[in-house]
Amino acid sequence: MKIVLQRVSEASVFVDKEQIGHISHGLLLLVGVHEEDEEEQMQWLADKILKLRVFNDEEGKMNWSVKDVEGEILVVPQFTLYGDYEQGNRPSYFEAAGPQKAEKLYEKMIRYLKVHSGLNIETGRFGAYMDVRIRNDGPVTLVLER
């Protein structure tokens, strides 16, 4: 599983010009599921995300987690994170999990984050063409992989 995590002051996602998710201060997660991923990788990454200290304290040091600052999380599926661009000019996605498996793990991650964080969790729509709007804070961007 591969996740691009961005600290945001605001983020929203639209499908067919309709806003389906919006957060203020928090994290945007772009989530890619690998064909070999299992629930274990998802849980490890979800726990790590909730504990990562990427928010500034009063001295400007990144000492607080999203839970510490009572932030929000927007989770957006992104199979293109597993794009292979080595041969040719059109990426191939043979390492990405198929839609059925990927959606199942994506939905499990959302439920896991809701249960274990107590925070507002907003989501994109699996399989949809989405317009994701981000206002980065920092910027702080991490690529997490397990």
Automatic annotation (TrEMBL):
<dbReference type="GO" id="GO:0000049">
    <property type="term" value="F:tRNA binding"/>
</dbReference>
<keyword id="KW-0963">Cytoplasm</keyword>
<dbReference type="Pfam" id="PF02580">
    <property type="entry name" value="Tyr_Deacylase"/>
</dbReference>
<protein>
    <recommendedName>
        <fullName>D-aminoacyl-tRNA deacylase</fullName>
        <ecNumber>3.1.1.96</ecNumber>
        <ecNumber>3.1.1.-</ecNumber>
    </recommendedName>
</protein>
<feature type="short sequence motif" description="Gly-cisPro motif, important for rejection of L-amino acids">
    <location>
        <begin position="138"/>
        <end position="139"/>
    </location>
</feature>
<dbReference type="GO" id="GO:0019478">
    <property type="term" value="P:D-amino acid catabolic process"/>
</dbReference>
<dbReference type="GO" id="GO:0043908">
    <property type="term" value="F:Ser(Gly)-tRNA(Ala) hydrolase activity"/>
</dbReference>
<keyword id="KW-0820">tRNA-binding</keyword>
<comment type="function">
    <text>An aminoacyl-tRNA editing enzyme that deacylates mischarged D-aminoacyl-tRNAs. Also deacylates mischarged glycyl-tRNA(Ala), protecting cells against glycine mischarging by AlaRS. Acts via tRNA-based rather than protein-based catalysis; rejects L-amino acids rather than detecting D-amino acids in the active site. By recycling D-aminoacyl-tRNA to D-amino acids and free tRNA molecules, this enzyme counteracts the toxicity associated with the formation of D-aminoacyl-tRNA entities in vivo and helps enforce protein L-homochirality.</text>
</comment>
<dbReference type="GO" id="GO:0051500">
    <property type="term" value="F:D-tyrosyl-tRNA(Tyr) deacylase activity"/>
</dbReference>
<comment type="similarity">
    <text>Belongs to the DTD family.</text>
</comment>
<dbReference type="InterPro" id="IPR023509">
    <property type="entry name" value="DTD-like_sf"/>
</dbReference>
<dbReference type="GO" id="GO:0106026">
    <property type="term" value="F:Gly-tRNA(Ala) deacylase activity"/>
</dbReference>
<dbReference type="InterPro" id="IPR003732">
    <property type="entry name" value="Daa-tRNA_deacyls_DTD"/>
</dbReference>
<keyword id="KW-0694">RNA-binding</keyword>
<keyword id="KW-0378">Hydrolase</keyword>
<dbReference type="GO" id="GO:0005737">
    <property type="term" value="C:cytoplasm"/>
</dbReference>
<comment type="subunit">
    <text>Homodimer.</text>
</comment>
